[in-house]
Amino acid sequence: DAMVIQNPRYQVTQFGKPVTLSCSQTLNHNVMYWYQQKSSQAPKLLFHYYDKDFNNEADTPDNFQSRRPNTSFCFLDIRSPGLGDAAMYLCATSRSEEKPQHFGDGTRLSIL
Amino acid sequence: AQSVAQPEDQVNVAEGNPLTVKCTYSVSGNPYLFWYVQYPNRGLQFLLKYITGDNLVKGSYGFEAEFNKSQTSFHLKKPSALVSDSALYFCAVRDIDSGGYQKVTFGTGTKLQVIP
Questions:
Q1: In the 3-class helix/strand/coil scheme, how is chain A assigned residue by residue?
Q2: pLDDT tens, position by position, A29-67
Q3: What is the pLDDT of residues B100-113, one digit of tens each?
Q4: Considering only alpha carbons, which residue of chain B is nearest residue A43?
Q5: Is there a contact between A98 and B107 if contact means CB atoms under 8 Å apart?
């Protein structure tokens, strides 16, 4: 009964080679989030969508983009990954912005 | 501006003993406070939240947290720790800024180690 699914769990890409991470949800939640987490640090919010309304955090690098084609799916695109982009990427959903977030198990991205 | 602080990087407790993981917050309005737990190579899992009402909030897996407005704290507690409680714990606060924008900020996390 997985509710927030991230694929793949582990992704390896080459320095500078574009990569896309995917997230799907079966909860029909309005809000979807993308976080970057390094080495057991606090998750850092990159983007979030309230329905189709897109919110980009001010300090999210231009290298990162996101798409939400429908309620169930959200994608994180990294155009030219650098070594500093190696991290765990977490997707989360919530019914609304004040409700608890439901997280996927993340995609661990490695850069060669 | 809002912030949340977890002053301890790691907490060690013997199995069966009570545990406390500390969190303090600073927000401009009424706080919405959350605790999440993260096991290795997993996403965060919601444990409990405080929005309004009773200051003592009960959550999943026997955890509870006490909201203290005067001390701006929201410490996580459990009466009797289990080895399986060993994990990374994050406190989070949701606030609304002057522009009406809602944002959740996570603390830096506290690693809980329960010793058999």
A1: CCCEEEECCEEEECCCCCEEEEEEECCCCCEEEEEEECCCCCCEEEEEEECCEEEECCCCCCCEEEECCCCCEEEEEECCCCHHHCEEEEEEEECCCCCCCEECCCEEEEEC
A2: 999 999 999 987 999 999 999 888 888 887 899 999 999
A3: 667 788 999 999 99
A4: B106
A5: no
